Amino acid sequence: MHNPRHDISRTQFQLERFTFFSDGIFAICITLLVIEIKVPDREQLNIYTDASLWHYLSHNSLKFLGFFISFGIIGHYWSVHHRIFGYARDYTISLVWLNLGFLLTVVLLPFSSGLLGEYGSDTHMFLPYAAYVANMCFTGLMNCWLWLYISNPRRDLLTHKISDTRIKLGLYRSLAIPVIFLFALLVSFFLPLVSRFIPVLIPVILHWGMKGLERKADIKEK
After folding, report:
1. Cβ neighbour number for residue 132 with a 10 Å cutoff
2. Left, alpha or beta for 5 (phi > 0: left; psi -120 to 50: alpha)?
3. 209: Cβ–Cβ under 8 A, 6 or more apart, which residues?
């Protein structure tokens, strides 16, 4: 397929459609996440005291943990998506389909999160967590591919020249989440309960672990 040849104003409009459509997908995914968390039916579950309610909530604590982690991950990829397309001044048909591929992995997150929430309390079952981790890895890899496609100077899609360090920073940030989840999956075979908490380290690594490289990129682009 040939790339469209719009004038500058139309190209900007099409890029805005990109982000608006993607924003809608992210918003729907976050909404679907919370639908999986249902208020317990007091009659069906025989919950009439604080103790019985606390027992229900504690029994489903891993489900709540999975929700908060998934919410944070989707929110993170939404902000990253905004930053990536903030660098774009033009687009290609390949970029359109690449973005759709990335969004495909995002829309699967409520399902894999719900699967983990439903069966994750049984730490002896590995398939739900493996499916969840696989989804996270595919999302991270598609995000990485999207960043490398747009940041490639040979495609001439950038609003301005960015340093190689900035490109590496985006690459490392994209791959950090899949690597952490793969590590958590390996740990789950030996310490299944501990593995559920490993993704909590993601914001620490993304924020403080990349500080040096981010400062280096800022210095190079001054």
Report:
1. 26
2. beta
3. 176
CA 137 to CA 169: how far, in whole Å?
18
Domain-wise residue ranges, the chain: 8-220
CB 172, CB 135: distance < 8 Å: no
Chain-centroid distance, C-alpha 11:
27
pLDDT (tens, 9 = 90+) of the chain, 222 residues, equals 555 555 555 667 777 887 889 999 999 999 998 887 778 777 777 788 888 888 888 887 888 888 899 999 999 999 999 889 888 888 888 999 999 999 999 999 999 998 988 887 777 888 999 999 999 999 999 999 999 999 998 888 888 888 888 888 889 989 999 999 999 999 999 998 899 999 999 998 888 888 888 888 878 777
Report the alpha-carbon distance of residue 11 to residue 170 in Å, rounded.
25
